[in-house]
């Protein structure tokens, strides 16, 4: 069996990308810049209201975005998520594999593939309305443990910590990773995920994680502090490797309690922040599985993130494979 850099696990959602205006969000009453879970009826109403607007489809979900950007950098991976035997489900599998990520989870004969309507305003902020659909029924039986065991990292998204069956799948992946010597990477995903499951996230971080990804707001939520510096120190005390993004300020890397600030790359044409954190994680995971030091892995993560914010949607239109030396210089380790 071939080796994989990363075994990814997350929600399998078809992203529906639609540019819109602030006035539309205000009219609909949606909070700008956050992700909101909605039912099929509400999401259908939003799509009806936007009938006639330009729409683009992408295979997505937070961890899936990371896996696709990993492949774009030259990494290898397999992804576990749940789709249905419908048009969106067929599109999802084909689009993931076209992007270079193996996707072999048998589709469900019931329900509908999950979707995420991503509304992007002119200031590049994205507001996401997510209908999880069948993705929320992922179970531990959907995990291919043989592929997990031949991976360098497992990568689990915090969005999965919502239902009993997806929690079981997360825990099994982490437990089997530890048994097989596979490193566990976990992303907190969103401040609301942390606030809703703070005690569980603390336990997972302490007991299972070799690497955690978070942004400053997620870190502050987990540490219960308003100081991002104190938050990072706290998380660093319970996990030996922490990568915290801080918007245009770049990122912070903590290895065994030693914290480094990693400057960002300027975005010449900021269009859409969708997937920036996901792409940062992709760059870091690529770097760590290809011999980069943690700081240089974070530098590559910053670069990948700087490229995605110059795109509409969470998919890079440029190939980054083989460009690490050009961007980072010859000394990468």
Automatic annotation (TrEMBL):
Query: Could you tell me which Pfam families the record lists for this protein?
Result: PfkB
PROSITE patterns in alphabetical order: PFKB_KINASES_2
Q: Supply the InterPro entries for this chain.
A: Carb_kinase_PfkB-like, Carboh/pur_kinase_PfkB_CS, PfkB_dom, Ribokinase-like
Query: Which keywords fit this entry according to its UniProt record?
Result: Kinase, Transferase
Q: Which residues form the Carbohydrate kinase PfkB domain?
A: 52-317
Q: Which domain of life is it from?
A: Bacteria
* One Gene Ontology molecular-function label: kinase activity
Q: Which family does it belong to?
A: Belongs to the carbohydrate kinase PfkB family.
**Which PANTHER family has this protein been placed in?**
CARBOHYDRATE KINASE PFKB DOMAIN-CONTAINING PROTEIN (PTHR43320:SF3), SUGAR KINASE (PTHR43320)
Name of the molecule in the record:
Adenosine kinase
